[in-house]
Amino acid sequence: MSAASLPTALLEPHLFSLAGEERLTCDRAEVLRYLGHSGQAIDADLMARIDAVIDEVERTARPRGVWMMTAVDAQALTDGGEPCIRLMGTSIELGGRDIYRHLKDARWCAVLACTLGLEHERQLRARGMGSPLEATVFDAASSAAIEAAVERMDRHIRKLAQSAGFSCNWRFSCGYGDCPLAAQGGILAALDTGRRLGLTLTPSGLMLPSKSVTAMIGVFEGAPRSADAPARCDLCRQKAACSFRARGVTC
Hints:
Blueprint lengths: L13 E4 L10 H7 L9 H17 L3 E14 L5 E5 L5 E3 L1 H7 L4 E8 L1 H11 L4 H32 L3 E2 L15 H8 L1 H4 L3 E2 L5 E2 L3 E9 L22 H4 L5
Antiparallel strand pairs: 1-2, 2-3, 2-5, 3-4, 5-9, 6-9, 7-8
Helix pairs in contact: 1-5, 2-5, 4-5
């Protein structure tokens, strides 16, 4: 099946934002995990202070995102001759076995970026000059908030793909496994996040605003293959030309 068989709604960049007075909901357990909590008792006064900061983040966070669908080329090689994933029509090249396994059997890839924005970044930095406790909780709640926003984008993309008869695997970000963080430059360029979201890379390769996430979701014609599933060379559409197999290993 060609990319042309995908619905038009999946072939063009799409923006994401909250509607009207809609709010994010931060996972309290996730916030506590970011704070290093491991089950110890928290007294009522401290929990009230933590909840107040979390509530502020939920009220004020206004995430924005963009995503697009692109065809997957799993036959590409890096300059060093290693298999890699290239996303057609973009400059995105994804090296590493983990992302290769995640996307090599996918026909398309949904690429997304989401950020809490520069105003939230200013609030985050201003908090650093105040109460250490509130600054730490604000940072942890902001991390939970951007994850909640990306999860909404994930569910939306998944719903659209499934309504068109396709399946998806889980979202995979640069920095997972051996997928290099350096690939984020190509992702931000392909999604034009500087213009659309105000999301850029610093000279050291970090995203700014800091509470930002990029991710990729494989889209399949049949059942998806999870990146953590055992390699099944007999099912792989690249087995005839696989340089991993030529060296006696699997991806």
